[in-house]
Amino acid sequence: MRKILFVDDDPNILQALKRMLRPMRSEWDMNFINNGESALELMNSEVFDVIVTDIQMPGMDGASLLDKVKQKHPETVRIVLSGQASKEMVMKSVGVSHQFLSKPCDAEALKSSITCACTLRNFIKNMESIPSLPSIYSEINDALKSEDVSMQKIGKIIAKDVGMTAKMLHLVNSAFFGLRSPVSSPEKAVSILGLDIIKSLVLSIHIFSQFNKKKFKQNFFEWLWKHSMMTGAIAKSIAKHENKPLSIIDYSFTAGLLHDLGKLLLAVNRPDEYAEVIRLNKEENILAYKSEMSLIGVTHFDVGAYLLGFWGLPSPIVQAVALHHTPFKIIDKDFTPLTAVHFANAFLHAHEKGIEIQEESIFDQNYMSFISLEKLLPTWIDIAKELVNGEPNGKKN
């Protein structure tokens, strides 16, 4: 039975939550506390899977509570459930929470979020760290909801993080994007690439940077970063070549960029087991996800998809991350970001290993036949080959 802790200084809210979640009593052991200090005291004696807290509370506010929970109980998934909160408080909470829900929140949405949190925690309960959604990414999302949003405003938000700005501009000016003239400002980058692509870069840079100092072989992180970037670039190019809507093109890039997020999480938090996964893959040619399941009990695409779904990323992105190795599980006959990411990832793995790229051997033929795209594979392979002629810094292989 999962243990869930709810914290809110308003007794009426706590009563409403009790009534709303009464049907879950057979699945969840729920505690309802009216202040942060008492919540921490209870957590010192009991282990909770999830904590759900308000932000604006007297004494210890929700952000401060979650910061302490993050330090003392990192295994607990942290959710904010709040109504009217200042922008400063919201941004403060983003760095210490895994999800932010707004009041009023209907029962199904709340149950879904908590259920997803429990599932995620079950997969990675022994891990040291789960990356929080970056504050800049969340601030951009909030800005997009305003009526007066502008490229300049988005650029200024990104520029708040100097390191992220530098890394983003480096990537924008790399061979991945093939821009004709150098870009020197976040505002210009946003105007050229579009907000969705920029958000994807901000999110991925943040995730990778959190783990750069972890004790694991650095060449693995370098490979994973380059592989992820190139997968996104190829997936985007394929979607663009097929004249898909801009949303599908952007989703394809984001899904490709984040498709191996689970590998990063598993490698950092389970380094010994994952070192063996990598060895088996390189020396015995055993697919990584098969070794992950046997050694760790979960695959990288499960972990990555659950985290992205928990963060609330669009379902086409989550679907592509979840099924990029097993696209045949989908029943959609249309071209989707999954199509592009499956192709890009399979192509790159073959290319990286020096395997002769033959569509019948590296792509899921049942899936490609199902969506009637087999005849397009030779063209897609040519597109991918052109893209891998240069690395992110523009140098030739």
Main structural class: alpha/beta
For the sheet with most strands, the description reads: 5 strands, parallel
- Rough outline: globular
Radius of gyration, in Å, reads: 22 Å
**Span between N and C termini?**
53 Å
Strand content: 5-15%
Using DSSP, what is the number of strands? 5
Provide a count of the helices. 21
Average pLDDT figure: 83
Strand order in the largest sheet? 2-1-3-4-5
Task: Give the SSE string.
Answer: EHEHEHEHEHHHHHHHHHHHHHHHHH
Helical content band: 55-70%
Low-confidence stretches: 391-397
Please describe what this structure looks like.
- The longest helix is centred in the middle third of the chain and has 24 residues, at 218-241.
- This protein has helices at residues 11-20, 36-43, 62-72, 87-94, 107-124, 135-144, 151-158, 162-172, 186-193, 195-210, 218-241, 246-258, 261-269, 271-283, 288-295, 300-311, 315-323, 337-352, 359-362, 365-370, 377-387; strands at residues 2-7, 28-33, 50-53, 77-82, 99-102.
- The radius of gyration is 22 Å and the shape is globular.
- Strand 4 (77-82), helix 4 (87-94) and strand 5 form a beta-alpha-beta unit.
- The chain has 397 residues and is an alpha/beta fold.
- Helix 11 crosses helix 21.
- The chain is built from 21 helices and five strands.
- Residues 391-397 have low confidence and may be disordered.
Throw out a few tags for this protein.
single chain; 397 residues; alpha/beta; 21 helices; 5 strands; 59% helix; disordered C terminus
